Amino acid sequence: MTLSIIAVIAVTGAALGIGTYGVKLARTTSDLFVASRAVSPWWNAAAISGEYLSAASFLGVSGLMLKFGASALWLPVGFTAGYLTLLLFVAAPLRRFGSYTIPDFAEARLPAPYMRLLAAGIVLLISGCYLVPQLKGAGVTLRAITDAPYWVGVALVSLIVALNVSLGGMRGVTYVQAFQYWVKVFAIAFPALLLLIHLGGLPARAALFGEEIPRADRAMVIELDAPRPVTFPDTGETRVVSRVELARGDAFPVAEGIDAQTGDEWSRPVAESGRGSPILIYSLLLATFLGTMGLPHILVRFYTNPDGSAARRTTVRVLGLLGVFYLFPAVYGLLGRAFTPELYVTGDTDSVVLRVPAAAWPGPMGDILAAIVAAGAFAAFMSTASGLLVSIAGTVSHDVVPGKARKRRTRFRIVSVVGMLPPALLALATPNVDISVLVGWAFALAASTFCPLLLLGVWWPRLTASGAAAGMLAGATVATGMIAAGLIGDVSQETAAGAILTQPAAVSVPIAFAAMIVISLRRPPQNVSAVMAALHVPEPVSP
């Protein structure tokens, strides 16, 4: 525990130090919003990857794999593949167009007084939804390594991120996020490789790939933080308990919302129903594949490149950097099922990455590896939260309340502090909501709003402001309404209705595209040739 605290303090101190260095460079409005468009492809690729690899990637993928099985590995497939659509369709045109924010692009491409505010509202909604799970992950991590109350981690990361962003802006955050990418890769890869070497491969293969469910290898008592219902697989009985006593060979009970699966069931990437059902996987891939294109804190990064060609080179590098990282979350999911099955009882599966090293390698070496992982987890929360807060502060100070450059810089710094409060309060109010639910909501919103706006806005000259507005509103309403209905109605994910309510992109994305196209066809736009040329004419233009 002491080593983990030291590692977290070291990473946090390094981030603050680099951010402080960025303060010296953040002298202009362009520095704060787009780092003066002077970030090289390698620096930008590392910063984008650091910003993108959030709590959902560092903790959530492994936690979902432990909880539901191999079907959770479709998440990193979609997360990474989303950059392919960015590379092919958006990166270079968006940079050529030259804006500070996505609302800037929306208003310039589709001149209408309401487009900027509508786009700004969606930026704030997506960024806020995505910021909450980062803060939740911070609370979970600090509680796991120090036994501190959940709220301490939320408050600590909120304060550090607000300080870094308010002082350094985009230029300072770029250096911090690039550093944090390499911290995260080392923190997830090095312990995973050492554990596999130490163990000589994967243990408990019958529970991983065979006909067994996880069973206790010794007598143990598992204390729960509060009385809750758990199901005992051997008898099928469900009881409300505050502690579970197991003898050697007893099957581990499972908390509410978790199914007791054999290794064969757990290791299947596609199942007939539930989280692995084809309809849910299809919708999940659609949300992540297209949602990446619509994440505001990722899109703004492409404005920091010097030109469109550099934006494309940056995206290619991001694909490689993300591919390296996503090799390792599955290792923790597999080892967690073998070494920390008590998490099935407590339901705290999001902490599996933090708990596996010490459980799989008891002693000083396990403690060292656990400390490295904890440092990487904190880097994940801070880097993604920083990018999201830059997006929120930039949108409010540049799009919602525009003004002179000097006042805009002041507003950026004020909003960087004030804008962190609503997500922090929401994170404190929802400690038991799955990280994956909130992240899925953010991706579904992005895929159903900004993705069709960008694809059609960049490649279809006939898109109109009224069509774009109708499509974004329809997509956001359907996605949000379906997810809310699933949460309020407590619909089982074992049914087709439950699966689609959990991840509604398969419904909301086609509706958004259809609304934009149908309404835009009613009245063609005028004088769009100059705008389309700004998007597609390569730079520099030959005389």
Automatic annotation (TrEMBL):
Residues that span the membrane, as ranges: 73-94, 114-133, 148-169, 181-201, 279-303, 315-335, 368-392, 412-429, 435-460, 467-488, 500-521
Gene source species: Solirubrobacter deserti
The entry's keywords: Cell membrane, Membrane, Symport, Transmembrane, Transmembrane helix, Transport
Keyword Ubl conjugation in record: no
A Pfam family reported for this protein in Swiss-Prot or TrEMBL: SSF
Protein name per Swiss-Prot or TrEMBL: Cation acetate symporter
CDD domains: SLC5sbd_u4
Localization: Cell membrane
Principal location class: membrane
Secretion signal span: none
Topological category with respect to the lipid bilayer: Multi-pass membrane protein
Family membership: Belongs to the sodium:solute symporter (SSF) (TC 2.A.21) family.
